[in-house]
Design goal:
The chain is an alpha+beta fold. It contains nine helices and 23 strands.
Amino acid sequence: MKTSKRELHYILLAALVVLSLSLLSCNFITWPSDLVGRVGEVATRVATEVVKIETVVVEKEVPVEVTRIVEVEKKVLITPTPSPETPPPATWSELDVESQILTEVYRKVNPSVVNVTNLAQVELFAEEEVIPLGEGSGFIWDDVHIVTNAHVVEGADKVQVTLYNDLTLPSQVVGVDPDSDLAVVKIDPHGLELQPVELGNIDEVVVGQRAIAIGNPFGYEGTLTQGTVSAIGRTIPSLTAFSIPEAIQTDAAINPGNSGGPLLDSQGRLIGVNAQISSAVRANAGVGFAVPVNIVKRVVPVLIAEGHYDHAWLGITGQTYSPSWASALGFPEETRGAYVMLVESGGPADEAGLQTGTQQTDVLLGLDLGQPVYLMAGGDLIVAIDDQPVKNFDNLLVYLERYTSPGDRVELTVLRDDGQQQAITVKLGKRPQRTR
C-alpha cells in the first residue's frame, strides 16, 4: 500500500516528536544510558515507517532537503559516527636508507644527550632566588660525568642537568678549559644506568660525509638536525686569546642551545662538540663549528682528574708562508712552512733562540686599528717539527695540541734569512692565561 504525501508528513512528524520527548525526558545524571535505551525503542517503533519514508522519497521525488534530514537522523540516532582511523606508522622497511640511518642514530644517541641549565643566585626582595642565566646541551661521558662547552657553564653559581626523559638532576662543575671551550659536570644518577656516547676518530672524518647534531636549540630538547661535514682542519677562536685547531665545519643547523651537544657520524659516534656558529644574527646561517673529538679525548679525562688542563706553549705568533713573500723575505717560492712574526719575550721560543722579523718590507698584511701592518723580514721559517713537515701554521698548532704537553722538548727545523737550515730544540712551557 502506498503512502500519501500527507501521511508521510504525519509519520515523519510523529517520529520527530517521539524522539524530542525522549531527549527532553533525560536528566543530567542518567541521560547517556536513558538516551541509548529510548533511542533503541524509538528506532524499533519507527524503523518500518523510516523504510517507507525512504521508499517514498525515491518514488515521489521528495525535495533534497528532506532526504538529507532523514539520512542525518538515521546516522546520528541509529548508526554511531565512526572515529577517523590513524594511519599506521611506517615500518622500518618502508623508510629510505637515509631515514633509516637518522632514525637509528637518534635512537642510539638521544638518551645520551642532556640539557644543561646555567643557574645564578640573586637576591630578590631580600630573599635568595635561583634564576636561569642560559642553557645549552651536553652528553654523557661515563656513569657520572657530563661533557659540555665551557661557555655554557661560564659564571654559573649552580648547574642543572635534565636527562632525555625529563628527569632533572643537580650537578656540579668539576673542570673547565676555556682554551678548548670544554667543561665537565658531575651528577648523581641515583642508580640510573647512563648511556655514554661512543667516541669516533677525527682522522676518519672526511669532507662530504654526513654530520648529525642532537641538542636543545632554543630550548627545544631532543632536536636532531643533519647536514654534511663542510670542512675539516679549521682554526676557530676560543674563550681566550688562543685558538682551537682542527675544528669541524658543518652545515647541519646549529643554533643557540646546541652548544655542548654532540656532532655525530652516520654510526652515531662522536666526532665533535658543537661550539660556535658564524652568523650576524646568532642563529644558524649554514656555518657551524665543533671542537674536534681528538681534543675532547685529551682534555676531558684530565679535567675529570685534575679540574684543569694545561696546554703546551711555544711562545710565537706567525702565519702560513706565502710564495708572494719570496722576494721580500729571501726564501724560495716553492718552500712551505710557518713564518715567525713575533717571539714572546721570555717565552720558550725566545729562550731557544728563534728569531722574529725586524726589517719592514713593502708587503701590506692588513690594518690594525686603522693603521697599516707590513710584513717584517728577518724571521725564521719553521718547515718541520720533530721531523714532521710543517706546510702551514695550523700544522704547527695541531702537532702541539695533539702530541705535546708542557715540559716536553720538540725539535724545530727552521730556515734562516741567510738561507741556512738549522735544528733548534725548544722546551715547551705552559700556556699563560690570556683573554681576547
